Input
Amino acid sequence: MGLLTFSRGGVHPPENKISAGKKIEFAGFPEQVVIPVSQHLGAPSKVLVNRGDQVKTGQLIARSEGFISTNIHSSVTGKVLKVDKFPDASGYKKMAVQVQVEEDSWEEGIDTSDDLMTSIEGTAEEIRNKILAAGIVGLGGATFPSHVKLMTPKGKKAEYLLINGVECEPYLTADHALMMEKSEQLVVGIRILMKGLGVEKAIIGIENNKPDAIEVMTSATADEPGIQVQGLKVKYPQGGEKQLVQALLKREVPSGGLPIDVGVVVFNVGTAYASYLAVQKNRPLIERVVTVTGKSVSNPSNFLTRIGTPASFLIEKAGGLPDDTAKVINGGPMMGKAVAKIDIPIVKGSSGILLLRENEALRNPVLPCIRCTKCVGVCPMGLEPYLLMTQAEKGMWEALENNKVMDCIECGSCSYTCPSSRPLLDYIRLGKAEVGKIMRSRKAV
Amino acid sequence: MNKLIVSPSPHAHTAESVPKLMYGVMISLLPAFAVSVWFFGIGMLIVTTVSVVSCVLFEYLIQKHILKVQPTHLDGSAVLTGLLLAFCLPANIPFWMVMIGALAAIGIGKMTFGGLGNNIFNPALVGRVFLFISFPVAMTSYPVPGQWMKYTDAVTGATPLGIMKEGLGDQTAGQLMQEVPGYMNLFIGNMGGSAGEIAAVALLIGLLYMLYKKIITWHIPVTILGTVAAFTGILWLVNPEQNADPLFHLLTGGLMLGAIYMATDYVTSPMTKKAMVIYGVLIGVLTVIIRVFGAYPEGVQFAILIMNAFVPLLNKYFKPRRFGKEVQHG
Output
């Protein structure tokens, strides 16, 4: 099959994959790590350790609380310095465990060898339990607890597993590196997810700016009849799960729904790899690949990083903070969050640290809307950003709900495109927050 | 360490901007401008210059001294309005009338509604219609092409549409077609008419440029021209004695200029593809009705202004299809 893509909207920001081709490098150990107890969607985990406790690498330090929650493990060996609130990427202080780092000593029962284990033991339920135990969450950035996603709700049937190897954000190359270097483990991870979910068919979607990854993954899945690799045209936001489902299977997730409503479950390649480690090696999620990049960065890299490492540590390893840095982003340029301090901890959802220069970082002055319709043309969800912005400005919450503001995936294509540089997404987010509040209070009645 | 900028995503922006779009449209108008100067000479140059300078000046004065806001006269939109206004005026119109037209276009057509982005009616057409109603004689006396050094003293002659309208009571359409310029002349612009509306080929080149640069989409121009061709085609087939053929209608009058440049004005045209198609069809229908059954030989200016008024309604009822509205299975 030729290249596929999603049918509506989308933009083509410059790719800037400066760190593509860089082999994954272990970042090393900082002096201290700060491990937040909420690195996932859902309820924060319950802390099990106290100040002064000695912890080992891979030890459970916070337990899942509630249905949508998961476990947190220590990413290093050392002494717990503090269990307190620390600032994270959001700028707010959140509860975390700070550990003074000592020499790496893994918890018992964890296989730290690199041998490829291809035979999958255990039932689907056992697989799901191992994934919960290991604290696996969606590593594409949403950080939804993966074991929950593997449990198909009553009345729905999973038909396809889609693996998201798209990495449509400019600059980021962590998933690319993982596919290039760990393709065999990835394939086992995909088979594990297929078993846990109970599906026979999986499709790996990879954008065409990574032809080497398409080739590597195609040969790694050559003997797997149920797993297929599909190349995709380069278009942002191809990696958005709704767009991915539409591109690969021509199915549209209904408004307010989830991919399972059309028989699909989507997982990021990083999550598939972490699942391999969890089920085959009993290894909990304590490290991930983080791209550190930017036009002025002297050593743009893909670092294998222990959770809780300060971003500043990685920036030093990448050659230090360039003098012309004006913005530091946790994530990619389209959907990442700008941070106020660079010592924030790397968490499970941190895919990249991007350093932007001033001319890239500043916003243009805002002009009136000239009704050029470009925002309507690029919106992948069929919304009208110019209208949503005006309605949000005027507090027209009911009109916003009727115009489907809650369908917005916050991809930023609208703000990116607007010739008048209008802050479309800012106001849409405001609208979503208010309408969300109203919808929740309606349910409570 | 330097202070960091913290602002919400996205942290990237395309190179597109309002001035770039405006200048893109102006570049696309260059072929039509060149043809008009070729056929109407110094008159065209004077009318265009006066129109552009007046539009920019009036926008500046109104913003600075009446509205007391930061003047934005150099963002390209006033220049574009000035150009388009000049293109739909006769090249022999006195300069002070051009200035009044500019004042009407910018002052009434744009500033009263709140400036850029807020007007309902196409400002250049507001200026033109204002002049049309206020100075009917000057606005219906068109110079004969080829008089390079003549301005207000140019010899005037009838336009093809004028000939058709006047003559249809006494002569048949077929006979009148002998009196108007041949198709090749109509295509390249060797005919009487407003400064910028004469050269179909030059305007079509401009359309291709704008499509290539993604400044506009094909929906509005193609539906307007298609509807006019279809409607006049039907009339001509039904009664060829009393009706000119569709090709004649497409190449004459302000239809090309209107379909490609006036109806596609961002601010006053619809926001979704479905609405654009309906808008285009109705403009085409109204244009033909006025041309064939109405009192005026040309109807495009009124058709567009009438449909401008319907745009908010069209936007309300023709929304894009929302993603996931109907669950589809591949």
Observations:
- The CA atoms of residues 20 and 76 of chain B lie 8 Å apart.
- Residues 155-317 of chain B form one domain.
- Chain B is about 60% helix and 0% strand.
